[in-house]
């Protein structure tokens, strides 16, 4: 999480931030993005999708002196990860699969037999082909 945050801060340094009010900001990238810190939303929609502040949100939060970590969803924290996997996960043994492959085992191709009846002499036309009528 920290590496993602540091990468976004490095990118965000080149943006220009204009404060509209206490919670709304305009961040000038190639285009202007509108960030609402209270709603945790940005016009680029990455903050709403990922629940992780986008580059524009990080710029806005830093510009007004807030902590970016307080705006990151709790699902990205170490404590949340630890609560998700409190017990150990054991591998499942597969009894049906042999552990060793014998060296004398040769895999042969399947038997191919011709179907019953006469062979087709007329080709099967493609769906895009048109038939020419002769009068």
Automatic annotation (TrEMBL):
Record region (Disordered): 115-135
InterPro entries linked: Znf_PMZ, Znf_SWIM
One annotated GO molecular function: zinc ion binding
Domain SWIM-type positions: 33-65
Keyword line: Metal-binding, Zinc, Zinc-finger
Lipid biosynthesis in keyword set: no
Transmembrane segments: none
Keyword Membrane: no
Superkingdom as given in the UniProt entry: Eukaryota
SMART domains: ZnF_PMZ
Protein name: SWIM-type domain-containing protein
